[in-house]
Amino acid sequence: MRAQATCLVQEGDQPLTLSWQKDGQPLDPRLDIRTSQIDLYTSMMVIESATAAHSGNYTCTATNAARATTSTARLTVSGRAHKTTPGGGNGTADSVPPAWLVEPASASVALGGVVALHCLAKGFPTPTVVWRKETASGEFAGVATGEGGVAGFENGTLLVSRAERRHEGRYLCEANNDVGAGLSKVVTLSVNEPPWFAVRSQRQQVVVGATASLTCEAHGDIPLKLVWTRDGAPLPALPRYELSDREVDTGQVSELVLRSTHVGDSGTYVCTATNTHGSLTADFHLLVQDVPGPPSGVGVVEEGARHLTLTWTPPEDSNAPISAYIVTFTAHDSQQPPDGIFSGPREVTVEGDQRRVRIEGLLPSTTYEFSVVAENRVGRSQTSSPLRFKTQEEAPSGHPQNVRVSWEPPPENLTHGTILGYYLGYKDDSESEGGAYNFTTVGVDGAGVTTATLAGLRPHARYSVVLQAFNSRGAGPASPPALGTTLEDKPGAAPGHVTCETVTSTSLVVTWSPPPPRQTNGIITSYRVSYSQLSSHEDGRSGSVVSEGLRATLAGLRPWTNYSVSVAASTRAGEGVASLPLVCTTDQEVPEAPARVKAVVSGPRAAVVSWAPPASPRGRITRYTVHWASAGSRSAPHTRRVSPHFTHLPLHDLSHTAHEVWVTASTRIGEGPRSSVAMVTPSHTVGAGIWAVGGNLTAAWKEDVSLPCGAVGVPEPVLTWSHERLEIPDTHPRFTVQPDGTLTLTDIQRSDSGRYTCTASNHHGEDSVTYNLTVLVPPSAPSLHVTETTASSIRVQWSVEDTGGAPLQGATLHYRYR
Q1: Which of 367, 348, 357, 365 is nearest to 305 (CA)?
Q2: CB–CB of 62/69 below 8 Å?
Q3: Alpha-carbon distances, residue 499 vs 57, 515, 579, 718 (angstroms)
Q4: How far apart are CA 136 and CA 166, in angstroms?
Q5: What pLDDT is stored for residue 752 in this prediction?
Q6: Which of 312, 409, 651, 683, CA to CA, is 20 to 30 A from 668?
Q7: What are the tens digits of pLDDT across the range 480-536?
Q8: What distance in Å separates the CA atoms of residue 187 and residue 176, rounded to the nearest whole number?
Q9: pTM, to two decimals
């Protein structure tokens, strides 16, 4: 006789394994027992010729990643064959009418959700299960499976995978095996629509005093109620707050209007939609922006004769970032500035993230008045309290240009007539005692002349001077030579043969030779070595070192950094001409840790690790090393070296436990510190994940830029790109999304600056990554005007209204004769 048993799993995550045992042991092949998998949730055991040897306890085990469960039934074979179903008791192999194993029941499901209607009957022969749905005429017609999100299974289950309104109604399940009257039952499937929003988060910026309008549109089954709150509390009872509600075809709309907005109106306004099936919220982030307050605490932290460093405290937040600070200063001394020095009010503009500025080109021992204003997109603040400050004194910058010579005339008994004048002779005796005198004639007037001035002499030089009186008959004898030395001046030439040598990653040694002797203009007392960091993306460190010898050590520098170095000599009269800048580079050092390390699940036993290069590489990166280990494990971590050209790595064969992942970077000096630790737990459910790390990006005008968006997920996620929260259309003329998700921007313009967000989603989850792109453009043309002229010079001044988004590196002045 024939016997069979059916093992049915009502629910559970795939993959699912079904297996059979007899009396706690695997099935004996000699018993000729056949098993077969009917579908993903059903297995059948069949004994074609049952004998007493087949009697015993039969167990069906269902196993997935979460757990294992069993069901056991007893089969007794005596004179007649038997049939059994686990958990269903015993029965004979004679014809048996259908009986419910799982009786159909009414169900409800949310719109778009998944629901299963179960209908399972036992009997012999095995009953056939048929589902029908009530039509508009009241009749029941067969349900079309395999389309429209409806699927039927051999175990009698009817599965609706994407519930729609058309799936709602009454369903009839019939079970029949031509024995008896059969079974049937009518159940009802309700499709409910909880509240939902087409957009769940919005941001709005307005200027103080403007009107803000927040519109909340919700959809779902009626009655649908919308309630507003702000920062978790009910809206304040202010006449400026106006609420209005209206119904639309697809739901309910509530509009909140805020008139004459204040900065205090900023915050998160939450719209909560509620019906009988649940509730959902939408966030509206309102930012009310005002002009900034005036900066405070204006002071001087470093000073000199011709420069000073000014600092200030930024104003309180007005919900708009400071875009610039404007420093205005004016000289308040009564003395007139030298030729070529502009004395009117001057302005210096500083980037909004700065809190100090070094002001050059000041006059020594001069009182200046400084004030600071802050500027944002709304406007300029009031002026800070003024600060008056006097610059330090400085050694005189000009040498005595003329030397006065005085004498007494010859005795009267030796003049032999009327003295008509003198021949004044002088020569430079600094380097040799030879050479001829240069003579000039000094005339006399009625009172006689006993003084004269020699102009155009060389600084710090010894001169020999002689005089000859002459009358109408000729010149008399020369006086004995008189010696005199002119005063010192600043050196007229720079030191020569400037060289630099790398000592460590933070120091340089600079050497040089003195200026040419004839251009020292005095006794060299010291040398000043000035240096500044060459960097266009961050504040460059600068400074100077004074040395009395011909070498100096620059310490406290940044590793693997270019510095501009120049040397100037000084005498007691002041500092002379600096040498041409020399670029020197410090040595490498171990790098900082990689930034923004993240790890996303890419499969049941796989993940992708990604990172950004170190903020300060301190050298040329030679490799990255990825480390990973099970959380809490004391064993040595796994490691994998990665080329410096890559910033992500797939990991495979991971266990289903939490893993810690970190990354290090290396230069030729060695391996740097470890990054922050990222956690990842492989799972059979692979939600959408983006392994690109995003960050800040700067690019030049008209270049092409690529923004990666590497994503994983099962099923494969859908990617969308947005710019400043506006979705980028597929038809954009210059923006293209590549097959791997990378957004390519060609011929970029300044208007392309801003936040770019890539969002990946599947029905297991959502992830996003953001890039902040700054497009640098050439600065605008300077505005040039003449401020002062002399007989031999012209002073010009210019201003640049738009720097193009980057600090100015310099200016080139062109001029020609006309």
Answers
A1: 365
A2: yes
A3: 94, 15, 11, 59
A4: 12
A5: 94
A6: 651
A7: 988 888 888 899 999 999 999 998 999 999 999 999 988 899 899 999 999 998 864
A8: 18
A9: 0.48
